[in-house]
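Final report, Chapter 2: Outcomes

The project's central promise was a pipeline that accepts a single protein chain and returns its three-dimensional structure in a standardized token representation, suitable for archiving and comparison. That pipeline is now operational. To close this chapter, we reproduce one record exactly as it appears in the project archive, with the input sequence first and the structure output second.
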Amino acid sequence: MSKKILITGSNGLLGQKLVYRLLTEPGVEIIATSKGPNRLIKQDGYAYQSLDITIPAEVDAAINKFKPDVVINTAAMTNVDACETAVEECHKMNVDAVQYLINALKKQSNNPLIIHLSTDFIFDGKNGPYKETDAVHPPKSVYCESKFESEKVVQASGMRWAILRTVLVYGVVDNMSRSNIVLWAKDSLTAGKKINVVDDQFRTPTLAEDLAEGCVLTAMKGATGIYHISGKDFMHIFEMVNKIADFWHLDKSLINPAKTSDIKQPAERPLRTGFILDKAMNELGYKPHSFTDGLAVVDKQLKEKKP
């Protein structure tokens, strides 16, 4: 039986990877939605509709038109520091829009599943890596609190839901319109720039293709509940950037270790997150790349994009 899967935020890194991954999945009808025009290089094999999920009437119209079996909500305001000043915009995108999607989906008669993307930043970072049942205490930041609120909205929806939390996603996006820690570190070191990198923030960095695979496994199995979907290698960010330098044979002397307290970012970050992946591996069959193998995927894609 075929499945209709609607993706929000399809122009983003995860959204793009999801479209491309689902194109290889038999029996799936893909509806890609994002604000503005479609930015994917490949534009056939799926439907595209411009959708601003912060406008309830647009959400209702899209859900009524396509009647999806599954919605994968990747759209969010994720710039943690920008959220500190754009408080209303952050809440509208990360919380209100989730409620609009739920309201629209609950009017459908086909009992759709909503898969909502969340973050390690809902944890206080005192004793990671975390499993799904660990207590949630978001740091005092607008972004962290908005993602915690969005989880509560999904859990209170009364419909079929899954929440996939992830950590520090990296990868290559079409048209290279977005950066992430791997590309930033590689580009900075290639250009000979000195960079300050924190050595007291621990993460399990996630290849975008792995996160997309976790979403697809959840959708195809109709799995519900909370799953932690990330990379499997637990390390601090300074170690991560050193591994990036090693992989591309870049000058590690340009990397200066720093403390989070020295960098003075507007938003508070949890220090020690990262995920325990046993549940996703056992229940979904999730198998993430190692960080080094993830870098090899990025390298291959960067080479393919060169003219």
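Archive annotation: The chain has a mean pLDDT of 96.
This record, like all others produced under the grant, will remain available to the consortium after the project formally closes.
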